[in-house]
Design goal:
Two copies of one chain form a homodimer.
Chain A: E1 3-9, E2 12-17, E3 20-22, E4 28-30, E5 34-39, E6 43-51, H1 53-72, H2 85-109, E7 116-124, E8 130-134, E9 140-142, E10 149-153, H3 159-165, H4 172-189, E11 197-203, E12 211-215, H5 220-239
Antiparallel strand pairs in A: 1-2, 1-10, 2-11, 3-4, 5-6, 6-7, 7-8, 8-9, 11-12
Chain lengths: ~240, ~240
């Protein structure tokens, strides 16, 4: 399982992912699901991947190959030189569709699932911060003011806090706290979502990362969030009125 | 969809269910999912049903028929005269298996699901408070000290608060608050779970209900819980430390 969450507020973009993958309960490994791309001062992009790992790694390899090839032949279009974030989503979607066309049938014949999804968060100079969700078929949707966040993977445990907190006016600081609380609830309830975490923050019109860090299991700030939230829930619960006579 | 939750603590049993059923998003109705059985001073039992409605109604009809027939022939075994709560679970499980044997194949041929599950909470004089979960196959499990609550239906949104609060030492008052908070989180996040709610509380060694009530959408106490919890979460969130520099 996986839990990835991405938030788009007026002040920018916040992305958080776990690192646990599993093929059955007895086959658990750690893989990065968050990947960053930077052209300093021009564009900053984070991809968050979930679903069949061979598919999402294949998509990433396709994107990387194009970036490498474009160094020799600048006419090759890549997510680092294309004209818009919308075009980035199309390029990722095309790579996804190519991987699905190539492998889906044989993966499913083997009894596994080939589904995958990728979130794309970023901004390029001249455009606005954008957040897209690319599906297995290569089609995609964009986050809007009505739905300022996307989740992929094990989304239910961590959704209530996002529903309550996140609006377009939420500060980057609060959006970061909210995704950490959301992840904390998910970690507590689903064993197949696990530390460490990868956090990235892209402030609006900075075209760079403010945060691009791995949060390890012994991270003190995350422990403060986790314990503080536990204590707040317990205190809040105690303060609720008693409804039995 | 459905959300039912039942808790067994040392002080007794607390059960809560919603009343919304749906066959697709455009076919929503209200059905009671919580049913109580009382032999005053001897046993008190609550059943909570989820899954295919024709199956669970069929199980209930089977139980009721036996209770009616036993008035003429006391040798007929029913959930009201059988010797233990464990035997109650067997009787409910047998009725479930009979319904599944009769209808499952034809229901599934029609493209619908026949799965259903029923929670049984109660105590009879001479025994302890018991909580069982009966599956479609008629087999069942019992809540233990390690797992003092069961949920059926849309369980994820409402599970974190139960995980944090419920232990065998939890008071009936706190267990009741906890199931209401758990339901409130579920109502907010899943449209196919809806008011009104049915709440029952069976204190240990009382062999009667302390609470057996329907909570309507305009219930003031539930509104206080719901609003109080919202305010507590917001306050708790604001008080968390800021992790961005």
């Amino acid at each position: 399982m996986t839990y990835c969450v991405a938030v788009r507020v007026d002040q920018g973009l916040v992305m958080l992912s776990d690192t646990r993958t599993n093929a059955g309960m007895d086959n658990i490994a750690r893989f990065r699901k968050s990947f960053t791309y930077l052209v300093e001062g021009e564009r900053a992009i984070t991809l968050l991947c979930s679903g069949n790992l061979s598919i999402t790694q294949g998509v990433k390899a396709t994107l990387s190959k194009a970036i490498k090839d474009a160094k020799l032949d600048p006419d090759i279009e890549t997510i680092l030189n294309c004209s818009t974030m919308h075009r980035v989503a199309q390029i990722v979607g095309d790579a996804m569709r190519a991987m699905q066309t190539r492998y889906r049938e044989s993966i499913e014949m083997g009894g596994s699932g080939a589904s995958a999804s990728i979130m794309i968060a970023g901004q390029r100079r001249g455009g606005k911060p954008r957040l897209y969700l690319v599906y297995s078929a290569g089609n995609f949707i964009e986050a809007t003011e009505d739905t300022p966040f996307f989740q992929i993977g094990e989304h239910k445990y961590g959704k209530p806090i996002l529903d309550r907190i996140i609006t377009r006016d939420t500060t980057l600081e609060d959006a970061t706290k909210a995704v950490l609380v959301s992840m904390d609830s998910t970690l507590r309830s689903n064993l197949s979502v696990g530390m460490p975490l990868d956090l990235t923050v892209i402030p609006t019109d900075r075209f760079d990362f403010r945060v691009r860090t791995r949060i390890e299991a012994d991270n003190e700030e995350f422990a403060m969030i986790s314990q503080g939230w536990s204590a707040a829930l317990r205190k809040g619960f105690e303060d609720l009125p008693n409804v039995l006579d």
